[in-house]
Amino acid sequence: MAAPFNPPTNFDSKPEVPKWVPPPPPTEDLEYAKLHSIDLSLLDSPDPEVVKQLVETAKIAIGDDGFLYLVNYGINLEQLHRQFSIARYLHRNISEEDKEKLHWDPQGGLYAGYKPPFGWRTIKGKYDGISQFNFYEEEYKSLDKVPECIHPFMDEISAFTEYLTRSVNKRLLTLLSKVLEMPDDFLYENIESKGPTPINEGYLRHALFHPFKNEEKGMGEGLRMFGHTDFGTTTMLFSVPVTCLQLWGRDGIWRYVKYAPGALVINIGDTLELISGGHFRATRHRVHNPPPSQETFERLSVVLFNGSKGDLRMQPCWDSPLIKREGCFESQGAYKEFKVLQDKGIPIPTNKEWREISIINTRHPTDEPEKLLKEVTVDGVKYIEVINQGVRVLQPL
């Protein structure tokens, strides 16, 4: 039985942090994606039939959508809201000096540090209303790498991240290893990055989406972030009421992800799609403006991007009985394109190369026209075409 999260509670010795109160959910009748819910505590059930059913549910969820809700994973709502309170405290108290000192450089292949609300490049671009602070390995090693206002809370952030990576994600990867019919520790021990810090080769993001003013609402035709896949193993996004996240269904329709208090919204990254030979789907998702009933609300977001071992070159797990029995699905995005390289005898990128070039080539609605990437139409659907390390990537608009 997995131990529940037991965070530091030495609040009296720290600056007061106003409690984050979730805003109300939307009042509109929106079209929502029908996601499966996984109760992670059932993985510890002594009844093999319960575990078997859990594995079957997970197999359907990650094959159909690549997205799922994770519940009963060990962190309660009060503990979670404390992390959201710290994230908001960071954005409200970071100094101008730290914004400059810790300014990010995505053109270097990492999102580490502070992103101002002006585009998705190192230099200042058009206003996009998205502020972020991204915690990579170096941010956990040195307080000089994080805003001074957040120094007193790094023990809580570190404990939170460590529980997510070394408990929640480890159990989730156990479940996904079972789907592949491999040993329980296969994905965690062989694919997931591990190291001396809680985050390893992934990163934690505190993001704040500021509401647009009237003159800004048409920016990007309502999009805050274009459709994309994540490049690691799993992404853990804590569900929030301000409804902006959309996923792209197999029918080519974008649908909202509904708020589920306390739930983790899990999506599969490119790495697991490649390892599974397309059985796991790296789902295309995007961030849209919220519906009218929420357009004046801030959207606070806490996300953990779990990273895979940087020196690995991804290919299907040919030892998997599932893959041996059912083969691979070449219709999937990342797997299909990587296979093209393999068939030509061209070395596929390592995980580190893949994630760095993916960051460098990220396209954003605020980009100037000369920086916009190529748009193509396939079977009547418009995509962004990007060539990363010789791999053709199509992302729906």
UniProtKB/TrEMBL annotation:
Signal peptide: none annotated. PANTHER family: FE2OG DIOXYGENASE DOMAIN-CONTAINING PROTEIN, OXIDOREDUCTASE, 2OG-FE II OXYGENASE FAMILY PROTEIN. GO terms for molecular function: metal ion binding; oxidoreductase activity. It comes from Kwoniella mangroviensis CBS 10435. The keyword Oxidoreductase applies. InterPro entries: DIOX_N, IPNS-like_FE2OG_OXY, IPNS-like_sf, Oxoglu/Fe-dep_dioxygenase_dom. Residues 1-25 are annotated as: Disordered. The keyword Electron transport does not apply. Residues 204-308 form the Fe2OG dioxygenase domain. Pfam families: 2OG-FeII_Oxy (PF03171), DIOX_N (PF14226). Belongs to the iron/ascorbate-dependent oxidoreductase family. This is Fe2OG dioxygenase domain-containing protein. Keywords: Iron, Metal-binding, Oxidoreductase.
